[in-house]
Design goal:
Layout (H helix, E strand, L loop, with lengths): L1 H102 L6 E11 L5 E11 L3 E11 L1 H12 L1 H4 L7 E11 L3 H7 L3 E6 L2 E4 L29
Parallel strand pairs: 3-4, 4-5
Antiparallel strand pairs: 1-2, 2-3, 5-6
Length: 240
Amino acid sequence: MDNEKTIEEEIREYRAQFERHMASITAKQDRAEDEVAEIHAMQKRAEAEVAEIRAILRENSRQLKKTEAIVSKNAYKVSELNSNWGKFVESLVEGDLLRLLNERGIEVQGILPRSQMSYVRDDGMRKHKEFDLVAVNGEEVVVVEVKTTLRPDDVERFVEVMGDITKYFPDYSSKAVYGAMAYIRCDSDSNLDVEREGLYVIRATGDSANIVNAENFRPESFTNVASRQPRRHLRAVPTG
């Protein structure tokens, strides 16, 4: 009888262990289902966020294209405005150029506007340059570069061009070729750089233009000179 009770007790114990084990499995299964449900919920939230990001990117792309179109249109307008403004300054200087140079003892008789010239370098490459104004007579030539805003880099580049002037204009190699830079406004005292480089300085104001070099100024002839860099290191335009 005692043995039978012992067996019954063991059966109850095994049954209790089994029930506890099954309960544990059920609990784990419930937790797994909860985790799966949470994962699904996270996945849905992620998909919703991705969809929102894509919508934002599409809108940003649309806005960017719209902005690019506006910038392109305005850039064209600015370029056109600058071009028209530059042509206006050229015409302003051209109208007074003969008189101004004659007053300085350079008896030029005609002006060639916007001369497209080129020459072939030693390396075989062709260099092109458009000269804004070229005033000529039998013995002297004045090459004029026109800028709405004159900057140190402009002076440096023009001096380098003038060093090659007889390559652009071989017919002028027997003439005295002078340079001039005309402007409305200037940065960093660039007008002083122009005069130091032996060039005429022409200031356009209102409806006329004037040579602002000193009365005793004598321009440098660039005829038959070797290509050269500016005589001094030009000041950089201040930043900030």
